[in-house]
Request: fold
Amino acid sequence: MTRATTLAALNQRIVVCELCQRLRAHCTDVARMRRRAYADWEYWGKPVPSFGDPKAHVLALGLAPGAHGSNRTGRPFTGDGSGDFLFPVLCEAGFASQAKATRLDDGMKLTDLWISSAVRCAPPGNKPTPEEQRNCAPWLDQEIKLLKNLRVVVCLGRIAFDGLLAYESRSGKLPARPRFVFAHGAEYTLPSGLIAIASYHPSLQNTNTGKLTREMLLKVFRRARELAEQ
Ligand code: SF4
Reply:
């Protein structure tokens, strides 16, 4: 895999990636069948590129696109229940220009924040295989290196947290037995110097049950801002 020299060039490569046959087939099938509520949509159906402020000090790292969310709209956390929970929080914390993310041309602007995911194609049942996670990891490696001002990574869910630790490990920086444990609100300075904040993922399963509340997520992003400004 040759290296991209800008985040825009990296995104152009990501959207044509075909490495995971199972995921590509699933995304294409979902885009063809569509959900009745979105029958008039032309689904994105490709790997979902990251978006935000290329000068960001903070990265929000998710799990993977939702089949009828990002896989439909083409932008992370846009057009699904997770985004409906996340963006009002990002707006209140000063990272997002508006609380609603519905489609690519909705006017959303991020400041000091870049949003990405550990896996960039929607997986069946929201469960990518370990092999698919490994396949997609080199995109994250390149992305982190291109985010020149990056200081803080908010890991939305355990798979994102493990993905960031795997990045550190591939970079040869993580000790053989790292002592970083996933827990909501846990904060670690990693050997690379990046600060990781772990958070429960804003999935409907977590937000509808109260496992993750708006206040809990807001606290995480306010802390990320505080750390980024130090
Ligand atoms: S999940 Fe990642 S590696 Fe796999 S096809 Fe999609 S973009 Fe490529």
In short: The chain has eight helices and six strands. The pocket of iron/sulfur cluster is lined by residues 14, 17-20, 23-24, 47, 119-121, 132, 135-136 (CB under 6 Å).
